[in-house]
Amino acid sequence: QRGxxxxxxxxxxxxxxxxxxxxYISVALRIDEEExxxxxxxxxxxxRGIAELERGISVDLGPGTGETTExxxxxxxxxxxxxxxxxxxxxxxxxxxxxxS
Amino acid sequence: xxxTLTTPQNEVDTLMHKMADxxxxxxxxxxxxxQTGSVASTVASSEQDELSQRLAKLRDQV
Lengths: 101, 62
Description:
The complex is a heterodimer of chains A (101) and B (62).
Chain A: H1 4-33, H2 39-58, H3 67-100
Helix pairs in contact in A: 1-2, 1-3, 2-3
Chain B: H1 3-6, H2 9-23, H3 33-58
């Protein structure tokens, strides 16, 4: 049984990792969206963002079905989608970077 | 119409407060915790959606 304060702590952890991931991946995207952007830098930012997504997703929210828990779980599932997409992008970019050097 | 642009901000504020008083509203009322939580949640959710969309656009682009 999780107490309220535990729930708030877990919730905050998910949000904080979301925030960090959003910032890092936004930076990666800004670079990556430029045709001649420095892709190697984008790779590094993607990696940071991916690490934050992984941390946020790995927060165990328990079996609770309260409104807050449901909301956090929905956010985690969006983060999981982006984790897959960012990993795919990273893989492709890594090939490009290693191929062009 | 430029009339609204030349109306001083303090007059607008005064009018807003007068209207709010008449309607029995408190303009400085803070949102309850659960409300701010759900606003933050909506923002976070749309931020993740934005990442998805931008990542999707880059898919297969080299």
